[in-house]
DNA sequence: GGCGGTGGGCCCCTG
DNA sequence: GCCCACCGCC
């Protein structure tokens, strides 16, 4: 079946050859079903693996790579595997490592963005950047765009920074640049004209700052390959096997990048040896034509959930047309979930009309029923989840095997509040990123000001942080002086005496200049000298101390500044950790890692905690127990999606992704009322609930229950009724709960004021009263200090754990 | 130039 | 309900 002798590589750099049978990869095929085997063993120019959720996609990919290596069909350095998330890349690296050991190290297993950064760092000088370029995250680029919109008075034409940023991003994902856009724009429309001007200025500002934004990382790499074929050929020669995960989520720029990389080598390049990644590549005297790399893509159009950011589903649906002769392999057997979960998922997704029919199946049996629950408020919903997780935990389920999903990040707050109260260990994945915190961005701006002094944005950011009396007027004076004297903004700081500012301000500027120079000497010494690995951590500490940043936070009375200091300590710790893991790592390397790894927590795994995340973040992950929360109209499907073409079906796919993450237990929860924008509104059950056959869901409390009873108080005080209820009554949509009734009595909000019971003395046997749960008896007290936990048996609400410090309790 | 008060907009999802 | 832009005052 497998044609191992297919001449994949015509040319001098063919991989080492295997001698003869038995196949060294035989054990890699053990336990694979026939389509999986074919996906591992097929050899040819192009392979599309259509992999349903949980069909063993990662297994197939990693085994395919291992098989190439073990059969000596490829060197590790000839393999490029691309994923979308750092997490997926990390997992793939680990699993390939388990299969082939040490040799996994020469491979590129990277996200689109990190692969492009590696290429750009090497080639930046080819087109007017330096290797020290900065990566602007969306916050950075928004700040820059905001300034440009203001300069161009864009608001007079209805151009908001957010809209401009979105449009630029979209254009870059379609590989349009400012010039090409200007050529076809409708210039009689003044708004178009201003937008075009802003776009152009933005791109020039990036170039001047020696910076790329996230979209540029991809688009500029494509541009580089197209403009400099001899550079592209270096990578085409190097990567003979390219594998792309989640192909249904690629946008046009990413598609073009893959196309560039898999083109045949033209052979028109010069005969110099190039050094790529420390690997010298010598071209043969008479460069012969070299076939394009073999391409393997894996995807599932039912899991395409990124159309909103430019993902083009046609990339996968037209793969066979793009790559004639491509083999297609379908993986439909699911190894993850129970049949009940799959039946629900199949039922929901079959409501999308524009799809190829595909049905996941399993042979593990029906499993437990799906559990439904409707709370009175989002806090009631969260309390049910916390209680249920505790119950599972007591029955032996590890916290780390449980995940809670939601549609929007703002939904995490109610869950967090209840989880903290319940002393339930949890971890938010994604969400407000560590590196997006203001103090972290400030600290990084200090580092960037040293690493890439051309980055004016970074220098402007730290100019008056901490407050040193440098305001708008002075900032403008520095900018003007820089322009007049052909200096960078950073270098202008050295001439504080020539700015014509007051003595105090002048001294402040001089001091900042001195601190930056000192840190530069420490972290970027003159060539030849060796920097110790700890230079980054030391330089960061020096900058934060001598700039007065830490002192200002310490002197502050704002209680949040204490947390900011802790975050900065954490950043220094990350720098030290980085030095340990990368003894040769430079300041630039550190900044790259920080720019591409959005969350410091991505590095260390959330062992021992429940994982909270959006359904988008959940893609590619799996858990024994999954709670999909907020299953309400206007949330999933989201309100805004209704008006977008393809919006509702994308929402359905998103829900499908959430549901199919569950291995054994799936909970679907919702609330009858939900606070949004600070006010409480009535929520309707999601249409997706009605698409699931009623017999699959066991309602602990159905939307009907909540309505009919009207809520005679806290759910926790009511007996739970199993089954029945609303699930089956399709033509009888649940009536809205009246706004009056005792619904309002249920605690819909958590007191914003942080309570502090740390002094409360509690011991086993004591009786307490809780605001929501009523009276109960303490079984035990564990933990210490701020983390003391009371294990309480409430008279009517059952057993709960409470974080004593903040629990709304009183001793009786 | 810094600070505190106020009112509008907002919250969809990512590297 | 929270963040941020803006304004008026010191």
From TrEMBL:
Catalysed reactions listed for this entry: ATP + H2O = ADP + phosphate + H(+); Couples ATP hydrolysis with the unwinding of duplex DNA by translocating in the 3'-5' direction
GO annotation, biological process: recombinational repair
PROSITE patterns reported in the protein's UniProt record: UVRD_HELICASE_ATP_BIND, UVRD_HELICASE_CTER
Record-level Gene Ontology MF annotations: 3'-5' DNA helicase activity; ATP binding; ATP hydrolysis activity; DNA binding
Record-annotated membrane-spanning stretches: none
Entry binding sites for ATP: 51-58
Gene Ontology CC annotations of this record: cytosol; DNA helicase complex
Enzyme Commission designation: 5.6.2.4
The keyword Nucleotide-binding is annotated on this UniProt entry: yes
Enzyme class (EC, first level): isomerase
Keywords recorded for this protein, A-Z: ATP-binding, DNA-binding, Helicase, Hydrolase, Isomerase, Nucleotide-binding
Chain segments carrying region Disordered: 1-26, 702-751
Domain UvrD-like helicase C-terminal span(s) in chain numbering: 339-620
Record-annotated UvrD-like helicase ATP-binding domain positions: 30-338
Family affiliation: Belongs to the helicase family. UvrD subfamily.
Record protein name field: DNA 3'-5' helicase
Species for this entry: Microbacterium caowuchunii
């Amino acid at each position: 079946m497998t044609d191992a002798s297919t001449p994949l590589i015509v040319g001098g750099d063919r991989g080492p050859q295997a001698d003869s049978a038995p196949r060294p990869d035989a054990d890699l095929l053990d336990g694979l079903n026939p389509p999986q085997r074919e996906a591992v063993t097929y050899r040819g120019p192009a392979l599309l693996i259509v992999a349903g959720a949980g069909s063993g996609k990662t297994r197939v990919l990693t085994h395919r790579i291992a098989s190439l290596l073990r059969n000596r069909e490829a060197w590790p350095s000839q393999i490029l595997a691309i994923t979308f998330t750092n997490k997926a890349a990390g997992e793939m690296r680990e699993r390939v490592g388990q299969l082939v050991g040490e040799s996994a190290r020469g491979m590129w297993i990277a996200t689109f963005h990190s692969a492009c950064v590696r290429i750009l760092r090497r080639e930046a000088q080819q087109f007017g950047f330096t290797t020290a370029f900065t990566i602007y995250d969306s916050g950075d680029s928004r700040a820059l765009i905001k300034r440009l919109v203001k300069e161009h008075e864009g608001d007079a034409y209805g151009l908001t920074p957010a809209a401009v940023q979105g449009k630029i991003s979209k254009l870059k994902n379609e590989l349009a640049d400012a010039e090409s856009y200007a050529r076809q724009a409708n210039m009689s429309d003044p708004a178009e004209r201003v937008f075009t001007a802003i776009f152009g200025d933005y791109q020039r500002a990036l170039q001047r700052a020696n910076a790329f934004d996230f979209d540029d990382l991809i688009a500029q790499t494509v541009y580089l390959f197209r403009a400099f074929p001899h550079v592209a050929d270096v990578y085409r020669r190097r990567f003979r096997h390219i594998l792309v995960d989640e192909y249904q989520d690629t946008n046009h720029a990413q598609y073009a990048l893959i196309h560039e990389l898999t083109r045949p080598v033209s052979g028109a390049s010069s005969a110099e040896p190039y050094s790529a990644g420390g690997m010298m590549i010598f071209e043969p005297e008479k460069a012969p034509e070299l076939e394009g790399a073999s391409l393997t893509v894996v995807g599932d159009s039912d899991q395409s959930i990124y159309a909103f950011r430019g993902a083009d589903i046609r990339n996968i649906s037209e793969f066979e047309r793009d790559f004639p002769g491509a083999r297609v392999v379908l993986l439909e057997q699911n190894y993850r979930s129970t049949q009940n979960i799959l039946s629900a998922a199949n039922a929901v997704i079959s409501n999308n009309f524009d799809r190829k029919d595909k049905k996941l199946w399993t042979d593990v049996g029906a499993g437990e029923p799906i559990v439904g629950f409707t709370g009175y408020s989002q806090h009631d919903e969260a309390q049910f989840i916390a209680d249920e997780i505790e119950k599972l935990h007591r029955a032996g389920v590890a916290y780390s095997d449980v995940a809670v999903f939601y549609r929007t990040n703002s939904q995490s707050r109610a869950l967090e509040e209840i989880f903290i109260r319940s002393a339930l260990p949890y971890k938010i994945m994604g969400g407000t990123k560590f590196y997006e915190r203001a103090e972290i961005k400030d600290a990084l701006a200090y580092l960037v000001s040293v690493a890439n002094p051309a980055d004016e944005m970074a220098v402007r950011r730290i100019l008056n942080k901490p407050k040193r009396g440098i305001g708008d007027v002075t900032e403008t004076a520095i900018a003007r002086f820089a322009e007049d004297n052909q200096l960078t903004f950073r270098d202008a700081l050295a001439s504080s005496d020539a700015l014509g500012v007051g003595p105090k301000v002048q001294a402040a500027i001089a001091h900042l200049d001195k601190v930056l120079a000192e840190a530069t000497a420490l972290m970027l010494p003159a060539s030849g000298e060796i920097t110790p690995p700890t230079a980054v951590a030391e330089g960061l500490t020096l900058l934060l101390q001598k700039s007065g940043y830490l002192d200002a936070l310490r002197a502050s009375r704002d209680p949040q500044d204490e947390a900011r200091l802790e975050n900065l300590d954490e950043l220094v710790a990350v720098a030290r950790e980085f030095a340990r893991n990368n003894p040769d790592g430079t300041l630039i390397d550190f900044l790259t890692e920080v720019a591409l790894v959005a969350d410091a927590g991505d590095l260390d795994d959330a062992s021992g905690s429940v994982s909270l995340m959006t359904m988008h973040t959940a893609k590619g992950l799996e858990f024994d127990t999954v709670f999909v929360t907020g299953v309400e109209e206007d949330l999933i499907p989201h309100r805004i999606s209704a008006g977008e073409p393809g919006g509702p079906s994308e929402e359905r796919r998103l829900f499908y992704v959430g549901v199919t993450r569950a291995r054994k237990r799936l909970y679907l929860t919702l609330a009858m009322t939900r606070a949004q924008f600070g006010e409480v509104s009535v929520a309707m059950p999601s249409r997706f609930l009605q698409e699931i056959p009623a017999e699959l869901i066991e309602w602990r409390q159905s939307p009907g229950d909540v309505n009919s009873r009207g809520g005679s108080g806290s759910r926790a005080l009511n007996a739970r009724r199993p089954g029945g209820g609303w699930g089956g009554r399709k033509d009888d949509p649940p009536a809205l709960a009246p706004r009056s009734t005792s619904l309002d009595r249920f605690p819909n909000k958590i007191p914003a004021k942080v309570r502090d019971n740390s002094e409360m003395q509690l011991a086993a046997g004591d009786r307490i009263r809780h605001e929501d749960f009523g009276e109960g008896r303490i079984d035990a007290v564990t933990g210490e200090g701020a983390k003391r936990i009371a294990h309480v048996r409430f008279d009517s609400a059952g057993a709960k754990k409470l974080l004593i410090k903040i629990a709304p309790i009183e001793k009786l």
